[in-house]
Amino acid sequence: MIEHDHVKDDHIKDDYAVAVPFYDLWHEDGHVPLVRELLPPLLKGVERSVIEIGAGTGLITRVIAQETPARIYAVEPSLGMRSVLVNRLAEDPRLLGRVTVLPCGALDVEVDEPVEAIVMISVLQSFPAEQRAELWRVLARQLQPGGRLVFNWRERALPVPGDLEVMGSYAVGRHAYEVAGQVLEAAGESVTSRFVYRIRQRGVAISEDEVVVTNHWPAGERLAAELRAAGFDRDAAPEGMEMWRLP
After folding, report:
1. Rg of the chain over all Cα atoms, to the nearest angstrom
2. Contact of 14 with 80, CB cutoff 8 Å
3. How far apart are CA 36 and CA 59, in angstroms?
4. Burial state string for 77-114 with b = 16 or more CB within 10 A and e = fewer than 16
5. CA–CA separation, 184 vs 146, rounded Å?
6. What is the spatial distance between Cα 19 and Cα 193, in angstroms, rounded to a whole number?
7. Cα 151-22-182 angle, rounded to 5 deg
8. Which of 157, 167, 234, 235 is the most exposed place for a label (fewest CB within 10 A)?
């Protein structure tokens, strides 16, 4: 059975546009409600500035904005996702003045001054082992001393390849927006999955697109060792979340 998570890669831009119409529907049915509950206490005391890695369409951006008065740097490489995010900001003049949208990936982010916090929700799996060391270096360079790195994470058993299964179906007017997925290959910490996005009318598919993506799920011990090697210290966080600080 395929895991239900945000699957996005910093190197996939317009190819991921096929998922944009399904994005909020699927993620509101997935990890986003839990993150809304778990993230706010981890941002307590943050007042000046936050980087959000992989802002997507802005679902978590709004959570950050509600819980802190800080300026937000929303990093999003996908043009399709970024377009929805900017349109969402345009609906609220207060957010439009606080959120700077950066059209780049996590490895290329640079902001004007060190920030108090970096938030990264369902993005870490996009980075293979050979890129994560650079990721930690880049993020550490953006944080002020004592700054916090917050992300969601949990241990996972290696999935078994299988058949395509419907993971969610959502009514939009008289249409059903359907997301299906299957694991194609799993080895070590890498899992290659296929996702199919269909729009159905009276049960008949009138639109169908697919994306194949490889995600990377290191063991918790390895992840902790990488972060410590990059100079981070672990801080307390609820189950399902991680918080690490620079000394």
Report:
1. 18
2. yes
3. 9
4. bbebbbebbbebbeeeeebeebbebbeebbbebeeeeb
5. 41
6. 14
7. 75
8. 157
> C-alpha distances in angstroms, 36 versus 32, 40, 123?
6, 7, 16
Q: Kindly state the tokens that stand for 180.
A: 């299906």
Please give the pLDDT value at position 18.
Answer: 82
Model confidence at 2, pLDDT cuts 50, 70, 90, reads: very low
Tokens linked to 181:
């997925």
To the nearest 10°, the Cα dihedral for 225, 230, 231, 236? Answer: -50
Q: Are 193 and 212 within 8 A, CB to CB?
A: yes
Rounded CA-CA distance 240/183 in Å is: 23
Q: Show Cβ contacts of residue 28 under 8 Å, excluding neighbours closer than 6 positions.
A: 59
Q: Are 151 and 132 in contact (CB under 8 A)?
A: no
At 15 the pLDDT is 52
Q: What is the mean pLDDT of residues 53-68?
A: 97
Taken as a whole, the chain contains a residue count of 247
- Per the listing, tokens 């996590």 go with 106
Per-residue pLDDT, averaged over 189-193, amounts to: 97
**Rounded Cα distance, 208 and 234, in Å:** 43
Structure tokens at 175: 């249409």
Measured distance CA(143)–CA(159) in Å, rounded: 35
The C-alpha atoms of residue 156 and residue 138 are separated, in whole angstroms, by 26
Write down the pTM of the prediction.
0.92
Question: From CA 165, how far away is CA 184, in angstroms rounded?
Answer: 12
